[in-house]
Amino acid sequence: MYSERPAQLRGAALWQVTAGSPGPAGAMQGRSGPTDDGPTASSASADPMPLAAHEATPTLAATGSASASESASAELVLPDACMDIVWTGGRLVVAGPDTRAHSVEMRAGEVAAGLRLAPGTAPALLGVVAHELRDQRVPLDEVWSARVSRGVAEAVERAAPGGPGAVATAIEGVVLALSPRQQGVSGQMMLTMSARGAEVSEIARETGWSERQLRRHSHELFGYGLATLRRVLRLQAAVRLAGTETSLAAVAGGAGYSDQAHLARDVRALTGTTPTALFAGRMAAG
């Protein structure tokens, strides 16, 4: 089952997934996929700003919990330019930005909970550039300091008897205390302009960066270059439109693809399947 509710963080929503039904899920499997040429992955750690409660910021996307039903299930999770902090199997893990869809398997009785971080916001919170976590699942204590990781683990342990929803809320509370007070204006501009299909040269003019600087900042904030970011955001737009449009041509046009063939190529590259298969059961009735 999939459901949402508002969270403490502005612009956030709690998601809940039950095994056997579609919806967002925080998987732990390692994976790989195509990216722009750029920095390669490596391990890193940093101590984020000290715990100190302050006003919620608009930099975080959603918190959520997932609980499996009696039967196991597998879902296709699409790249969305987000990063996640996930609790599963008694472990806390950071899920880096995806460049390709991957299948998430939930065993019978398995539970998970976590926080989805909005595109470009995780590096400031975690103290690590996004490309170092691209297509990876890394233990939280390898990213954050032992002190902060231990604080999250203790909060999760206290909340665990209340179920995955309580765990998700506990993780949210810690991240709310750690989250930066302001979102980077240039990063938000990169995201907004990429979502509407702006070219790199146009974004460079607006941000005041050279194209080389822009590329570096894109890898640091989002985990990959702006070409991949555009493709990922366009795919997400297509998924949203599939619920309201009655034809693939309309989805392609509304999401910013040049034509239906362009949609098909991108969907195949990012998900390994076809638009017809991906949107099966989603398209509005004609």
TrEMBL record:
Kindly indicate whether the keyword Nucleus belongs to this entry. Answer: no
PROSITE patterns (alphabetical) = HTH_ARAC_FAMILY_2 (PS01124)
For the keyword Transcription regulation, the answer is yes
Q: Which UniProt keywords apply?
A: DNA-binding, Transcription, Transcription regulation
> Secretion signal: which residues?
none
Superkingdom of the source species = Bacteria
Give start and end of each HTH araC/xylS-type domain: 183-281
Quote one Gene Ontology molecular function term: sequence-specific DNA binding
Q: Name one Pfam family in it.
A: HTH_18
Which InterPro entries does the record match to this protein?
AraC_XylS_family_regulators (IPR050204), DUF6597 (IPR046532), HTH_AraC (IPR018060)
Locate the region Disordered: 17-48
Please report the name of this protein according to its UniProt entry: Helix-turn-helix domain-containing protein
Taxonomic source organism: Sanguibacter biliveldensis
